[in-house]
DNA sequence: TACGGATGTGTGAACGTGCACACAGTAGGA
DNA sequence: TCCTACTGTGTGCACGTTCACACATCCGTA
């Protein structure tokens, strides 16, 4: 089968001609307005006959509206795969946008090259707004969105985020503090933390909450710093911690995946959990119930974060005023067996 | 900050006026052509001055080219979260498209409503082609793409896929057969399978390969049928199998996640692996090395699948002829500890 | 009889871009 | 001198849509 032209598709003109009407009437059938029942029937028949589909590019050009919202997944390789939240957040956002008849298009940013292309894409009129997840400090995408005045919502917010850009997130400081306090309440004395992603608000805030809970007992030496929220980082971080303080009896892992890695290391080292060491995670992801023992952790409402962010963007699109620029969702503690 | 209009953005006209040139010359600066060095300098200065970004919608309308390719992730909720392949496939595709200066936009299909909207989006001129992953039998998306003659590539192919639509995949039948034969070679006699996703080519083919390897020894009763490739399905499937045949000594799980679930159930049931029961998986995902014992499995070249599919679409876009419509990537057996 | 409103339909102009074409000037070769 | 080729620039049109406007008809009422 040869494919010389990309197949001439019918336009409003063709439909109008086939139905014996004018373009205006076809447009009215599509967008609402006064149309007689016969005219509507004829046009609808012609449309399904010729297989008409409106051309979004033309519509977007004329209307300055594409009915699409970008979901910018600004994640390095390993994170994207090992972070279960990102998937849930996407699905939550997709569902909310879908309900409002908007298309979610997700853009993956891996390299500097990607950043530039995504920036071009965002400003090219293909999307009406953007949801940005886990942007980093000094992320160029932030500037682009700010310059463009593109309706946007950030999920989590880097410390240098422009005050006017709305965000939704969770109270990382408070949640980290609460779960650390739980660890204290079970009688643990030498509590360490495997802190990750300290170039992001979430990582920084979880560490801050941990520090706050421990107060004067806080010991810099008991913080292992790992780059990512993944399993491998957990294994490594726990080895570090055991080496520095063999008498450690409590661990706050910055994510469930990290906690899972930590459990594995503790098992190899012959420590029992929660007998010798209490371990808590963060996320309440599938990791939490898959571990042995199951993890005590902080529930992160990933799906709600996604749909909330979508709502924020949609509200801006409708021209509504946003009262509080930021919004924090609550994060219940989930008590299971690991601490 | 009030936001009455979506902020008037500069157009070629504005740039032309600012630089004292005509629109045509601006266009030539952007797209190549004869332009004097002074003119180019003046125009480039004006562009960076006014912060000009070409309007993709207008360009797409005129050129019938958007420089974007859709990645249709046709996955139900649980699958999307638990299938590690989809992420790797996406990253592979993204990298390849990025290199060719194309934007990947990924569309999530969850519901029938989504299907319809995605179909509209695909035919709306926002994308030049599509990569479709794990479409199901009778998927309406297939018809849409076929009707539109949209350059596309399927990853895996449903049995009812139009002969002309290119696909890339792996030899599920051969790989399943090979790993089952490995199980046989270790002396297992009562081998069961936890089969999943039997509404998809991958699920069907893996079962077929299993059956082929066993030949006359194949026993219908030793196949547990579960809906998804996830951990929970593995737990359930293994319970089924143990109940039906307590003397079972080998299990082929249709995915690593399923194998992980099966391991958990076996552990609970007091069976040792690989002592009492040999277990093999499929995918060589992060699950495989995270299990105890680590899984013997089939390596699935997820990233290559993604980049291959992208290449196929790009080649169609360039008007090249595709010799073999289908393409199968090789899948080495990875021998670890579980069988 | 005339008028205002509701209902229904057609037409022209724009959205921002790229391309074909026209035009102008210079240079080289027959 | 004329023709052609090359470089550089401006202008009109089209892509497919929507929207504002003009027009046409019919009804009820002043």
UniProtKB/TrEMBL annotation, chains A, B:
<protein>
    <submittedName>
        <fullName>LacI family DNA-binding transcriptional regulator</fullName>
    </submittedName>
</protein>
<feature type="domain" description="HTH lacI-type">
    <location>
        <begin position="10"/>
        <end position="63"/>
    </location>
</feature>
<dbReference type="InterPro" id="IPR010982">
    <property type="entry name" value="Lambda_DNA-bd_dom_sf"/>
</dbReference>
<dbReference type="InterPro" id="IPR000843">
    <property type="entry name" value="HTH_LacI"/>
</dbReference>
<keyword id="KW-0804">Transcription</keyword>
<dbReference type="InterPro" id="IPR028082">
    <property type="entry name" value="Peripla_BP_I"/>
</dbReference>
<keyword id="KW-0805">Transcription regulation</keyword>
<dbReference type="InterPro" id="IPR046335">
    <property type="entry name" value="LacI/GalR-like_sensor"/>
</dbReference>
<dbReference type="Pfam" id="PF13377">
    <property type="entry name" value="Peripla_BP_3"/>
</dbReference>
<keyword id="KW-0238">DNA-binding</keyword>
<dbReference type="GO" id="GO:0003677">
    <property type="term" value="F:DNA binding"/>
</dbReference>
<dbReference type="Pfam" id="PF00356">
    <property type="entry name" value="LacI"/>
</dbReference>
């Amino acid at each position: 089968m040869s494919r010389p032209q990309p197949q001439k598709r019918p336009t409003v003109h063709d439909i109008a001609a086939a139905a014996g009407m004018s373009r205006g009437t076809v447009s009215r059938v599509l967008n609402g307005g006064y149309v007689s029942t016969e005219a509507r029937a004829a046009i609808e028949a012609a449309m399904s006959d010729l297989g008409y589909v409106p051309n979004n590019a033309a519509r977007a050009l004329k209307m300055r509206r594409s009915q699409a919202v970008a979901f910018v997944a600004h994640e390095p390789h390993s994170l994207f795969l090992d972070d279960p939240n990102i998937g849930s957040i996407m699905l939550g956002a997709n569902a909310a946008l879908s309900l409002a008849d908007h298309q979610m298009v997700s853009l993956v940013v891996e390299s500097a090259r990607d950043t530039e292309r995504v920036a071009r894409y965002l400003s090219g009129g293909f999307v009406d707004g953007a949801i940005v997840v886990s942007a980093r400090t000094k992320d160029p995408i932030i500037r682009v969105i700010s310059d463009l005045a593109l309706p946007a919502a950030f999920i989590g917010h880097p410390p240098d985020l422009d005050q006017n850009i709305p965000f939704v997130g969770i109270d990382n400081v408070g949640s980290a503090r609460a779960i650390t306090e739980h660890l204290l309440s079970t009688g643990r004395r030498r509590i360490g933390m495997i802190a990750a992603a300290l170039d992001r608000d979430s990582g920084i805030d979880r560490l801050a909450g941990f520090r706050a809970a421990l107060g004067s007992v806080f010991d810099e030496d008991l913080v292992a710093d790992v780059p990512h929220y993944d399993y491998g980082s957990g294994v490594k971080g726990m080895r570090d911690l055991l080496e520095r303080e063999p008498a450690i009896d409590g661990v706050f892992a910055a994510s469930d995946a990290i906690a899972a890695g930590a459990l594995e290391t503790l098992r190899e080292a012959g420590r029992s959990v929660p007998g010798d060491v209490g371990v808590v995670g963060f996320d309440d992801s599938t990791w939490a119930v898959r571990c042995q023992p199951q993890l005590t952790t902080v529930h992160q409402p990933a799906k709600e974060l996604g749909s909330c962010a979508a709502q924020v963007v949609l509200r801006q699109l409708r021209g509504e005023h946003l009262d509080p620029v930021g919004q924090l969702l609550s994060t219940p503690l989930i008590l299971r067996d690991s601490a």
